[in-house]
């Protein structure tokens, strides 16, 4: 039998009867005596069943008590018990030693995440088999017996077998191993071995290396956040590795354990790092994040760390969130998540302040990319005796600064912005604790509002200062309407950030436009220099307020205008300026909507737009606001196509707003675009001038106004290459990395069914169309650019997929395959889109065009939707003269300009009702759809 010193004390476990399972294994050993292989299989099967049943029980207990940390502790206890039983079994039945030598001793140690004593259902297990000296046959056999059984159970196990000397040596050289040992926890075996490792680790590795460890962990954190996203307000956050997630809490505690030599978070209070209230906050954050992570693993059945849209609603229900007016249950859950992520950031700042005071960490700057100031000695500010500058950071002169004058809660941010100072964590900590001082009296104070308006419209790091103001809680308290949207998530695939983060990013984009940092903003870069100086500040105010009414039952644009009319006088704006801001807020979506979903060559479109904007100055302001709004939605949302559409709409509307006078009239703009094309195409091809002129003549004026130069050149080369082959049609594809889409270009003879066939072929290949640009040439060709959602990260994988899509398009256009047959073979779409509910709407409008009836359809997007809509319109004997296809996340908004077969608009109420009913059919559940949505003979459109 094994030496009793090394035999584990079987740990307690809430999830299964440890003694009963151990007895089961003893019985299996007796039944399979002499048949070791069969015994190992039987043991693995029995323990696998134990773990499966234990996880199911843990899930039920989590649903009942809603304590994530308790669930993580139970799961860890279960794993401890399983490994203890295995170790006991291996040393008793497989490799028993009567009189073990000094080398035949071992300590089994949990390291890394497992060492913390907390596990999610899908967490890895990290084990260290600690030996006194070198590896022995006995130690190797014990380790292998445990590991192979765990692997046979389907568990993910990381492991190492090392002596104490080797562990210390590797910890000195490798920061990952150092962190793993820092988190180590004795399981069973020789306690003295583990105690010796801890003692030597402290003396030989940790001592006097605090700054090195802190720097390494913070650098590691930066690298991690670059991979998963720098913002803690991403709407599909990574709960484990994202900013404000569990890994940030772990990093915080690793650093605290290393520098302060504590073993439990509670000891951080004794060391003065956190006060009692902050420690409770640490516990709340940890419990909530563990609840979310454990539920995610239970729901998905795997180690899923990304809180994606398709599981957010399930988690909201499991965690007990309910729907409130203006906010879904899932949006309330995600708002809580982002508030917790913010709290994690606050705790990190508090710890970093303590480390700086111990000289364990470098001092930060307000803007790390701009400021490169050398540390300076402590000094006072001439504007106020209440604040001091400490190493380029603003701090309070004494603890009573805010209570003595609550305006200082605004003034500290104003001074920091004015002097480009970072914020001392102690000042932010005190400000957060003083939020109750921000009351009605302070909100009505003219001086406080003047200071805030100067911050909002300042020219120095406005976005950064407002974000610090928001993180401290001051912004939401001083502007309660803003406080309502703090950490508010919009449950859709279009917006990448929470509402407050989006508003702050808008301010940052406008500052970039104003400083001319990037040419990507197109027309806005030009307009910012031409607006009336007094309107510059109004633009900042309007951007700050444009989405402030999100989450209310009323339309947020209308409700936002009401809020603007209430807040602007408080900020000191005149009645006229207030009305301008309110107008911008109320109509902030109009320009984007018209540019992307209306025919800009239709005079009625321009007339309707002009009726709304009414003045050139307002249109300039609206153009810049729209640009910043789209850009701040998320990566890849703003692009050259949208920039070109806004430019086209602006210049189409300008003559009507100026009484016929335009700085650049339509003919001049077309000519300028053609001149730029001539110059560019001549530089990249050997086309003679007459060939260039002939090609230019093949496009209608609208093409030259709506398509950017790079695309014009690409189209020209594509057309030339196609015609050189003598083929009647051709396709090509390219990748737009910034937008995350694959761009397909199709050249074919124009035909009423062309768009429908292309859409059907894309759907048959599982491609989801997110936007489309459709142009016809004067000689009867169609040049269509279709953007589809990208599916693969690697370009070579996506290229193979794109080749399949373009092949399907060509087969359908040639008539080699019928679209309905192709669709019958398609694979069902991914489940992610099914997480959303979008009420479908169809409008049929004769007020948006003099010549056409405009049909607008919106609803939940999916592969095949555009095909069904276009084929439905064709079967209704409607001729589609132009189509404007756009998606906003999960919502598709498709606009069709149509006539009847005689070229007339649709005016009959009965006919209009029929159109609406037919176009709602594609959104009905598949079993309820009319068979009329299947196309008949729409395949062969190219001879």
UniProtKB/TrEMBL annotation:
It catalyses: [protein-PII]-uridylyl-L-tyrosine + H2O = [protein-PII]-L-tyrosine + UMP + H(+); [protein-PII]-L-tyrosine + UTP = [protein-PII]-uridylyl-L-tyrosine + diphosphate. The keyword Magnesium applies. One of its GO terms (biological process) is regulation of nitrogen utilization. The keyword Magnesium applies. Uridylyltransferase (UTase) activity is inhibited by glutamine, while glutamine activates uridylyl-removing (UR) activity. Keywords: Hydrolase, Magnesium, Multifunctional enzyme, Nucleotidyltransferase, Repeat, Transferase. Its cofactor is Mg(2+). Residues 499-622 form the HD domain. Residues 743-824, 854-929 form the ACT domain. Its EC number is 2.7.7.59, 3.1.4.-. Residues 1-380 are annotated as: Uridylyltransferase. SUPFAM superfamilies: ACT-like, Nucleotidyltransferase, Nucleotidyltransferase substrate binding subunit/domain, Poly A polymerase C-terminal region-like. Pfam families: ACT, GlnD_UR_UTase, HD, NTP_transf_2. GO terms for molecular function: [protein-PII] uridylyltransferase activity; phosphoric diester hydrolase activity. Belongs to the GlnD family. PANTHER family: BIFUNCTIONAL URIDYLYLTRANSFERASE/URIDYLYL-REMOVING ENZYME, BIFUNCTIONAL URIDYLYLTRANSFERASE_URIDYLYL-REMOVING ENZYME. Modifies, by uridylylation and deuridylylation, the PII regulatory proteins (GlnB and homologs), in response to the nitrogen status of the cell that GlnD senses through the glutamine level. Under low glutamine levels, catalyzes the conversion of the PII proteins and UTP to PII-UMP and PPi, while under higher glutamine levels, GlnD hydrolyzes PII-UMP to PII and UMP (deuridylylation). Thus, controls uridylylation state and activity of the PII proteins, and plays an important role in the regulation of nitrogen metabolism. This is Bifunctional uridylyltransferase/uridylyl-removing enzyme. The lineage of its organism: Bacteria, Pseudomonadati, Pseudomonadota, Alphaproteobacteria, Hyphomicrobiales.
């Amino acid at each position: 039998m094994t030496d009793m010193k090394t035999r584990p004390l079987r740990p307690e476990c809430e999830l299964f009867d440890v003694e009963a399972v151990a007895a089961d294994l003893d019985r299996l050993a007796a039944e399979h005596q002499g048949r070791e292989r069969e015994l190992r299989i039987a043991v693995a099967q029995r323990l696998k069943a134990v773990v499966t049943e234990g996880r199911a029980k843990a899930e039920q207990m989590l649903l009942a008590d809603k304590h994530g940390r308790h669930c993580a502790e139970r799961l860890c206890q279960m794993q401890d018990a399983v490994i203890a039983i295995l170790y006991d079994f291996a040393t008793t039945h497989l490799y028993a030693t009567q009189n073990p030598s000094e080398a035949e001793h071992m300590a089994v140690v949990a390291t890394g995440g497992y060492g913390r004593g907390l596990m999610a259902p899908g967490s890895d297990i990290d084990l260290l088999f600690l030996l006194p000296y070198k590896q022995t046959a006995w130690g190797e056999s014990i380790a292998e017996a445990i590991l192979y059984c765990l692997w046979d159970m389907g568990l993910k196990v990381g492991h190492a077998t090392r002596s104490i000397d080797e562990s210390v040596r590797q910890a000195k050289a490798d920061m990952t191993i150092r962190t793993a040992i820092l988190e180590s926890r004795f399981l069973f075996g020789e306690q003295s071995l583990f105690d010796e490792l801890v003692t030597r680790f402290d003396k030989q590795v940790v001592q006097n290396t605090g700054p090195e460890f802190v720097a390494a962990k913070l650098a590691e954190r930066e690298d991690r956040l670059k991979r998963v996203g720098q913002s803690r307000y991403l709407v599909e956050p990574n709960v484990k590795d994202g900013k404000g997630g569990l890994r940030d809490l772990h990093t915080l505690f690793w650093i605290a354990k290393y520098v302060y030599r504590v073993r439990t978070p509670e000891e951080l209070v004794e060391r003065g790092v956190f006060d009692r209230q902050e420690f409770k906050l640490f516990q709340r954050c940890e419990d909530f994040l563990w609840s979310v992570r454990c539920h995610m693993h239970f729901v998905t059945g795997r180690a899923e760390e990304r809180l994606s849209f398709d599981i957010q609603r399930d988690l909201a229900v499991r965690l007990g969130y309910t729907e409130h007016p203006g906010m879904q249950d899932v949006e309330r859950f995600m708002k809580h998540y982002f508030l917790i992520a913010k709290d994690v950031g606050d705790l990190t700042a508090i710890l970093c302040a303590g480390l700086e005071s111990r000289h364990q960490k470098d001092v930060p700057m307000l803007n790390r990319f701009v400021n490169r100031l050398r540390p300076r000695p402590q000094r006072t500010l001439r504007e106020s005796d209440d604040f001091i500058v400490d190493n380029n950071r603003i701090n309070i002169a004494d603890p009573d600064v805010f209570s003595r004058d609550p305006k200082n809660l605004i003034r500290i941010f104003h001074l920091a912005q004015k002097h480009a100072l970072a914020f001392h964590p102690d000042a932010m900590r005190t400000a957060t604790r003083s939020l109750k001082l921000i009351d009605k009296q302070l909100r009505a104070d003219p001086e406080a509002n003047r200071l805030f308006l100067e911050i909002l419209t300042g020219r120095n790091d406005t976005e950064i200062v407002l974000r610090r103001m928001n993180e401290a809680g001051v912004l939401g308290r001083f502007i309660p309407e803003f406080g309502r949207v703090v950490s508010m998530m919009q449950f859709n695939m279009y917006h990448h950030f929470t509402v407050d983060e989006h508003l702050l990013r808008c301010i940052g984009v406008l500052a970039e436009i104003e400083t001319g940092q990037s040419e990507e903003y197109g027309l806005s870069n030009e307009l910012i220099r031409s607006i009336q100086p007094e309107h510059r500040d109004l633009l900042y105010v309007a951007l700050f307020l444009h989405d402030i009414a999100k989450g209310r039952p009323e339309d947020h644009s209308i409700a936002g205008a009401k809020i603007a009319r209430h807040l602007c006088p408080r900020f000191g704006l005149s009645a006229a300026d207030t009305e301008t801001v309110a107008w911008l807020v109320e109509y902030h979506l109009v320009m984007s909507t018209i540019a992307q979903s209306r025919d800009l060559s239709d005079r009625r479109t321009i007339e309707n737009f002009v009726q709304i904007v009414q003045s050139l100055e307002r249109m300039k302001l609206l153009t810049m606001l729209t640009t910043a709004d789209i850009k701040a939605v998320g990566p890849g949302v703003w692009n050259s196509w949208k920039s070109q559409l806004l430019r086209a709409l602006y210049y189409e509307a300008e003559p009507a707003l100026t009484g016929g006078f335009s700085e650049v009239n339509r003919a001049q703009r077309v000519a300028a675009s053609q001149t730029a094309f001539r110059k560019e195409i001549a530089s990249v091809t050997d086309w003679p001038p007459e060939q260039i002129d002939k090609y230019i003549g093949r496009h209608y004026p609208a093409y030259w106004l709506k398509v950017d130069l790079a695309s014009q050149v690409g189209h020209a080369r594509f057309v030339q290459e196609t015609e050189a082959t003598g083929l009647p049609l051709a396709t090509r594809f390219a990748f737009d990395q910034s937008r995350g889409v694959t761009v397909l270009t199709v050249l074919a003879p124009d035909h009423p069914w062309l768009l429908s066939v292309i859409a059907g072929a894309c759907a048959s290949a599982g491609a989801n169309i997110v936007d489309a640009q459709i142009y016809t040439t004067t000689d009867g060709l169609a040049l269509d650019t279709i953007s589809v959602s990208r599916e693969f990260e690697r370009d070579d994988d996506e290229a193979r997929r794109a080749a399949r899509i373009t092949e399907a398009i060509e087969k359908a256009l040639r008539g080699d395959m019928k679209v309905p047959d192709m669709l019958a073979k398609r694979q069902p779409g991914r489940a992610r889109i099914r997480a959303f509910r979008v009420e479908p709407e169809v409008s049929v409008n004769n007020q948006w065009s003099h010549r056409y009836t405009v049909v607008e359809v919106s609803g939940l997007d999916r592969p095949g939707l555009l095909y069904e809509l276009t084929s439905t319109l064709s079967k209704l004997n409607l001729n589609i003269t132009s189509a404007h296809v756009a998606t906003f996340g999960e919502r598709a908004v498709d606009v069709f300009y149509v006539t009847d077969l005689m070229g007339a608009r649709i005016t009959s109420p009965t006919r209009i009702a029929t159109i609406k009913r037919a176009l709602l059919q594609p959104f009905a559940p598949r079993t309820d759809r009319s068979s009329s949505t299947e196309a008949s003979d729409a395949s062969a459109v190219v001879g």
